[in-house]
Recover the amino acids of this structure.
C-alpha cells in the first residue's frame, strides 16, 4: 500500500495536539487539532472515512443527536465492532476530522471498523459529501437558534441536494413523524427506512407554540393530526390533498415511563416476527424517539435485536443530558435545554412526574447558545408556573433577566421566583446555592449550552463532576 | 371595559417568539382588572365584524408570507387598512411590518404586495442584520429588541421612524432609523419579544385601544421592577457586544 505522507502528517499532528490539549486540561481537544489537520490535508475526512470497512453513519437533527449517536456507538460496540465516534459532541468538519484522526492508527493496533458521526446542521452537506456515508440518520428539525441556523425550511433546502445525491447503496433512516424530513426522503437515490410512533397514549392535546412545519408541502394546507407527540412530530395528514405521513417501516408501540429514570417500549419492524421489548435507561418521550432511531439504524447496519436491547438497557446519559451530580449535600440533575422543543420536553417531564424541589434555569446568549433569546417566549413555561408542586424557580445566566420576565408573564407567583442568582457567574452560583437551598434537596438545573459548559467547569473545579471528555 | 386583541396570522406568522407580545398585552390588561380576549385571525378568516380593539402581527417564513399576502389581496387587506386609518392600534414586527407597506421586493422575483397601510416599501438586501438593537424613540424613550432580517425598509412621506438606532442596523442599515409610526400603528424589526421588555410601549398600545372606545383612560401603574431590570440589562449587553 502506498504511504500517504500528507495524511500521516495530518493524523500525527492532530493526535499530538489532542494529547497536549487534554494534558493541560483545556477541553476535549478535537476541534483545533482537526482544524490544523484539515489544513495539512484537506482530504483527511474523506480518506479516514474510506478506511473504515463498514463506512460511516451520520446522525443529524436539531435535538437528540449527541444522545442518539452515543447510544448507536454503544450498540455497535456491543455487537463487537471497533467504533470511532466524535463523542465529545464537536460536530463541525474540523471536530469530526480531529475525532477520526485521534482514533486513526498509524500502522499499529486494531483499526476502527465503523464511524458514528454526529453532525451539526449547517455542516451536514459538507460532512455527507466528504464521508460518503453508508447510512444517514435524520432525527428531527425544530426551531433552534434562528440567528445561527435560519428558518427550518432554509435548513431543509440546505440539506436537500446532499440528501438527494446519497449513494444508491446507502440507506437514509428518517423520522417520518417529521413532515420536513419525510419530504426530504422523497427525493434521494438512497434506500429509505422510515420510523415513527404508533402509540395510543402520550399525545399532546394541540400543537405547542413552538411547533413549525405543520403545513402540507404539496398544497399549503394546515395538517390535521391523528396524534401529536413532540412539537410538530406525529401522525399528520393533509385535509385537502391525499398527502399523509408515510408508512412506517419501524414503529414504537407501547411506551411507558418509570419516573425520571427509564422508559420501556415495544418496537415493530417489518421482517421481525415479534415486537422487540426495549428497556432504556433514559426518561422522556423524546428519548423514545432517540432509542427508536437507534433500533432502526442499528438493524440497518446488521445488528441483531437482542444486542440492541442489551446495550440500551445500560446506556449512560451524555454530558449534561439528565446527568446526576452530588454537590455539597444537594442532588443536582442537569438537563441541557437549548431550544423551545428541548425545553418543552424537559418541562413536560418535570410536571408529569411532579418534581417538588427548586428549579434553576440558566440562559446564556453566547454564540453557541444563539445570540437571540426570543425563543424563550415559545417555550411553554406556563406548565411549570401552573404546577404548584414545583418549588422556587431561580433565574440565572447572562440573560437570566429575560427568563425572569418570561416566568412572570407565564404566571409564576412572585414568591416562587428567586432573582438572587442574577448577575452571578456559575462559579458564584455554586458558592451561593448551598446557602439558598436546604441540604438534601433535589435541584433541577436547566441550562443552555454554554451555561452548561460553565456550570460543569465550575463543578469539575470543585471535584464534583467528571470532565466530559473522560466519560 | 375589555380588550379584544386580534392576533393576525398567529399560526402562519409566529416564528421569533413574538407570541410574547400578545402575552404582555393580555397580562398587563388583566393586572389592571381589564379582561382581554385573544382572537387569532388566520388565512381565510375575516377581520370585518370581529370588533378588534388592538392588532398584533408577527414575522414568518417566506412561504407562509406569500400565502398571507395572497389572503390580504382582497377585502381583508382593505378592512385592515381601514381599521388602521380609523386609529385602531397595531404592532407589526418584521414580516408583518413589511406587509403593512406597499410591497416587499425579493431578488429576481415578483413583488409581494402589501396592504399599503403605511407609506413604506421593502426590498431584499444582500446581508442579514442579526443582533441586539437599542433605539431612542421620541414617544417611548429607549426601546430594546433583537433584529434578524435581510429585508430593507424605506419610509415615505407621512410616516415617522419609531426611533433612532443607537445599537444595531434598523430599517435598512443606512439611515440609522428603526421602525415606522403612523396614527396608532407601529411597524418595526424588533423581536425579543418586544413588549415584555418595553412595558411603556405595551401600555401605550393598551391605552390607545381603550381610549378609542372609552375616551380618556388612566391606566394604573404596575410594579415593573423585573421588566425594567431586563430592559436595562439588554441595553448594557447590547452596548458591550457592540464595542
Amino acid at each position: 500500500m502506498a504511504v500517504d505522507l500528507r495524511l500521516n502528517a495530518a493524523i500525527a499532528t492532530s493526535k499530538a495536539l489532542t494529547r497536549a490539549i487534554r494534558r493541560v486540561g483545556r477541553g476535549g481537544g478535537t476541534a483545533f487539532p482537526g482544524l490544523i489537520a484539515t489544513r495539512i490535508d484537506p482530504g483527511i475526512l474523506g480518506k479516514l472515512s474510506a478506511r473504515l470497512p463498514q463506512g460511516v453513519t451520520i446522525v443529524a437533527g436539531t435535538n437528540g443527536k449527541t444522545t442518539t449517536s452515543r447510544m448507536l456507538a454503544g450498540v455497535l460496540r456491543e455487537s463487537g465492532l471497533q467504533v470511532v465516534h466524535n463523542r465529545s459532541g464537536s460536530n463541525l468538519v474540523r471536530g469530526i476530522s480531529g475525532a477520526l484522526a485521534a482514533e486513526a492508527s498509524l500502522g499499529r493496533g486494531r483499526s476502527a471498523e465503523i464511524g458514528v458521526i454526529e453532525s451539526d446542521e449547517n455542516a451536514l452537506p459538507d460532512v455527507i459529501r466528504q464521508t460518503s456515508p453508508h447510512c444517514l440518520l435524520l432525527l428531527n428539525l425544530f426551531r433552534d437558534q434562528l440567528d445561527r441556523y435560519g428558518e427550518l425550511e432554509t435548513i431543509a433546502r440546505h440539506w436537500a441536494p446532499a440528501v438527494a445525491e446519497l449513494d444508491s447503496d446507502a440507506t437514509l433512516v428518517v423520522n417520518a413523524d417529521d413532515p420536513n424530513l419525510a419530504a426530504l426522503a422523497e427525493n434521494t437515490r438512497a434506500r429509505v427506512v422510515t420510523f415513527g410512533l404508533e402509540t395510543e397514549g402520550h399525545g399532546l392535546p394541540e400543537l405547542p407554540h413552538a411547533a413549525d412545519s405543520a403545513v402540507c408541502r404539496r398544497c399549503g394546507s394546515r395538517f390535521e393530526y391523528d396524534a401529536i407527540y413532540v412539537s410538530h412530530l406525529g401522525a399528520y395528514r393533509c385535509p385537502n390533498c391525499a398527502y399523509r405521513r408515510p408508512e412506517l417501516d419501524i414503529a414504537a408501540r407501547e411506551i411507558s415511563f418509570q419516573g425520571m429514570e427509564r422508559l420501556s417500549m415495544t418496537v415493530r419492524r417489518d421482517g421481525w416476527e415479534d415486537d422487540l421489548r426495549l428497556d432504556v435507561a433514559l426518561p422522556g418521550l423524546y428519548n423514545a424517539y432517540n432509542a427508536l432511531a437507534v433500533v432502526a439504524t442499528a438493524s440497518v447496519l446488521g445488528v441483531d435485536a437482542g444486542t440492541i436491547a442489551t446495550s440500551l438497557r445500560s446506556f449512560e446519559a451524555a454530558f449534561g443530558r439528565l446527568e446526576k451530580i452530588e454537590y455539597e449535600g444537594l442532588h443536582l440533575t442537569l438537563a441541557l435545554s437549548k431550544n423551545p422543543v428541548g425545553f418543552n420536553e424537559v418541562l413536560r417531564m418535570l410536571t408529569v412526574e411532579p418534581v417538588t424541589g427548586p428549579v434553576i434555569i440558566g440562559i446564556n446568549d453566547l454564540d453557541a447558545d444563539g445570540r437571540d433569546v426570543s425563543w424563550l417566549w415559545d417555550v411553554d413555561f406556563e406548565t411549570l408556573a401552573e404546577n404548584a408542586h414545583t418549588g422556587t424557580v431561580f433565574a440565572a445566566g447572562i440573560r437570566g433577566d429575560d427568563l425572569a420576565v418570561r416566568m412572570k408573564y407565564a404566571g409564576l407567583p412572585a414568591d416562587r421566583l428567586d432573582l438572587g442568582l442574577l448577575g452571578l457567574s456559575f462559579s458564584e452560583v455554586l458558592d451561593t446555592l448551598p446557602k439558598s437551598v436546604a441540604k438534601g434537596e433535589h435541584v433541577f438545573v436547566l441550562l443552555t449550552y454554554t451555561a452548561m459548559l460553565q456550570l460543569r467547569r465550575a463543578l469539575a473545579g470543585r471535584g464534583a463532576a467528571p470532565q466530559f471528555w473522560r466519560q | 371595559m375589555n380588550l379584544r386583541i386580534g392576533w393576525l396570522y398567529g399560526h402562519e406568522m409566529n416564528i421569533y417568539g413574538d407570541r410574547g407580545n400578545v402575552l404582555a398585552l393580555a397580562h398587563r390588561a388583566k393586572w389592571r382588572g381589564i379582561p382581554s380576549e385573544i382572537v387569532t385571525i388566520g388565512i381565510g378568516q375575516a377581520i370585518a365584524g370581529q370588533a378588534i380593539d388592538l392588532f398584533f402581527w408577527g414575522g414568518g417564513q417566506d412561504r407562509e408570507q406569500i400565502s398571507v399576502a395572497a389572503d390580504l389581496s382582497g377585502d381583508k387587506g382593505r378592512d385592515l387598512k381601514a381599521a388602521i386609518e380609523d386609529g385602531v392600534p397595531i404592532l407589526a414586527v418584521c414580516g408583518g411590518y413589511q406587509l403593512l407597506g406597499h410591497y416587499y421586493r425579493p431578488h429576481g422575483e415578483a413583488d409581494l404586495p402589501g396592504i399599503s397601510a403605511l407609506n413604506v416599501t421593502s426590498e431584499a438586501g444582500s446581508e442579514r442584520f442579526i443582533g441586539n438593537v437599542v433605539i431612542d424613540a421620541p414617544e417611548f424613550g429607549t426601546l430594546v429588541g433583537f433584529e434578524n432580517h435581510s429585508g430593507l425598509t424605506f419610509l415615505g412621506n407621512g410616516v415617522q421612524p419609531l426611533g433612532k438606532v443607537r445599537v444595531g442596523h434598523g430599517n435598512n442599515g443606512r439611515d440609522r432609523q428603526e421602525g415606522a409610526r403612523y396614527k396608532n400603528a407601529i411597524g418595526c424589526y424588533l423581536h425579543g419579544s418586544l413588549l415584555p421588555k418595553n412595558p411603556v410601549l405595551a401600555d401605550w398600545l393598551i391605552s390607545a385601544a381603550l381610549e378609542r372606545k372609552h375616551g380618556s383612560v388612566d391606566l394604573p401603574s404596575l410594579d415593573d421592577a423585573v421588566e425594567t431590570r431586563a430592559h436595562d440589562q439588554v441595553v448594557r449587553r447590547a452596548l458591550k457586544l457592540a464595542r
User: Anything to note?
Assistant: The CA atoms of residues 57 and 86 of chain A lie 12 Å apart. The first helix of chain A runs from residue 5 to 23. Chain A has a mean pLDDT of 89. The first strand of chain A starts at residue 56 and ends at 60.
